[in-house]
Amino acid sequence: MSSKRLFSFFFLLLVLPFSSSSDTTSWIKSGFWYAGSEFPTSEIPTMYTHLYAAFAHINTSNFEVFINNSDEPYISTFTKTVKQNNPSVITLLSIWGGSDESPDFFAMTSEFSRRKSFITSSIKTARLYGFQGLDLNGVYPNTAANMTNMRTFIEEWRTTINSESNNSLILTMGAYYSPMLDQSMKYPVETIVRNFDWVHLRSYDYYLPSKNNVTRAHSALYDPSSTRNTDYGIKEWIKNGLPANKIVIGLAYHGYAWTLVNPNHNMVGSPARASDEEEEDHRGSKRSLLAILLPTITITIIVISSILCILKKKTVRSEGIEELNEKAIGRNLKVFSFDQIKEATNNFSIKNKIGEGGYGPVYKGIGNSTSRDFWGRLSDGQEIAVKRLSECSKQGVEEFQNEVSLASKLQHVNVLQLQGFCIEKEEKILIYECL
Ligand SMILES: *[C@@H]1O[C@H](CO)[C@@H](O)[C@H](O)[C@H]1NC(C)=O
Ligand SMILES: *[C@@H]1O[C@H](CO)[C@@H](O)[C@H](O)[C@H]1NC(C)=O
Ligand SMILES: *[C@@H]1O[C@H](CO)[C@@H](O)[C@H](O)[C@H]1NC(C)=O
Ligand SMILES: *[C@@H]1O[C@H](CO)[C@@H](O)[C@H](O)[C@H]1NC(C)=O
Ligand SMILES: CC(=O)N[C@H]1CO[C@H](CO)[C@@H](O)[C@@H]1O
Description:
The protein is an alpha/beta fold. It folds into two domains: 3-262, Glycosidases (TIM Barrel), CATH 3.20.20; 331-433, Phosphorylase Kinase, domain 1, CATH 3.30.200.20. Helix content is 28%, strand content 22%. Strand 14 (353-356) and strand 15 (361-366) form a beta hairpin. Helix 4 (112-128) crosses helix 5. It binds 2-acetamido-2-deoxy-beta-D-glucopyranose (5 copies). One of its GO terms (cellular component) is extracellular region.
């Protein structure tokens, strides 16, 4: 068991505006403490200016904010405990909008009475436990109606808070790394700017082992080959009107274990495949924003470890297979996963069978959008011929190697070009391009 989440606790860091004026903007160094982490609140280091306690939830029957019974002992004493170590720290209570499409949040925002119930109870809960601020988290609008309701809600929340005669609460929001939620949907940036004190951007989990079949930097600060990186996201937010002094970068201190197809190819961009563990991880992806901090590590190290987050996982493979996979690169052959081939051939369906050779059956395979890999191989609709060497064939790894070598050298108009192979457990498969 590799432990992916060491502590669920994450680190946020303010991007300073490059201001030459005399205004004394101070850095926000905030930490996010997640109740499920079991990280003791008394051990949270004192380096922070702000600390978030996460999460309060939305009751979907009366739309009030509530704290789970199991979290209540920690969240109710959070402010008191952390202030014992650091009296000047400011605490905020983070409220979770629901699962992937934030159903709880959007159900709440759809009616005035529900919004009122939420707003009143959020302020009451914050005051009750001594929090000086509230945070809205995990909210991803995906319809125009959602967006309108979200705007209305934000305005009402802020107005209500401002109408309190005594010191008002800080309001913050946790948002996606980029203001664009998809090609057409964008956060209500103007409303956000006007009403929130700052926004912390989720600048991690750009790629996950459960969703990507090659290793990628899940928290890249800069990546010229893609738009999934923090540099791009921040620029987009600023371009859309969020001032730099309202941006806090949410950095993860967690990595992922990728199962490498070939342990020798362990650079960013190497083929990898999903494992049960990573499936587990996927199921828990709601929680994946709950990242991690090793308290005493410096910012520099945090940055470096975000980039170098590829953890090599021990994979037991015979030397013959390793050698074969190694050669694949030199010959420009692709190492396919058995699951990919299974999917492309409709689980080696009899309907896909196009022949039977001496060594075993040959199938026609068709790529689909999920089988497509980083290099676009086996992409949507691409046809391949799959030669599955029969399980009873005596051919060992060495013979298979020879066959791969021979096939890869054959370049003839009448011969199908070898594209790659798959060698996994007892399976030995050759993949040819279809003409
Ligand atoms: C949610 O609200 C309902 C209706 O007021 C109440 O019965 C229930 O106990 C609440 N649930 C929680 C977890 O607070
Ligand atoms: C707290 O309650 C919410 C809503 O019922 C639930 O989704 C969440 O998993 C609970 N969290 C914990 C840590 O029990
Ligand atoms: C908000 O979006 C959710 C999820 O797409 C949808 O089910 C819901 O009906 C929407 N609510 C409104 C008010 O548009
Ligand atoms: C602020 O005022 C409200 C009423 O307007 C009150 O309920 C609350 O306790 C006050 N909070 C503080 C921190 O004084
Ligand atoms: C993006 C991609 O190709 N994902 C696939 C990776 O492999 C797993 C299982 O092998 C598939 O379920 C994914 O669809």
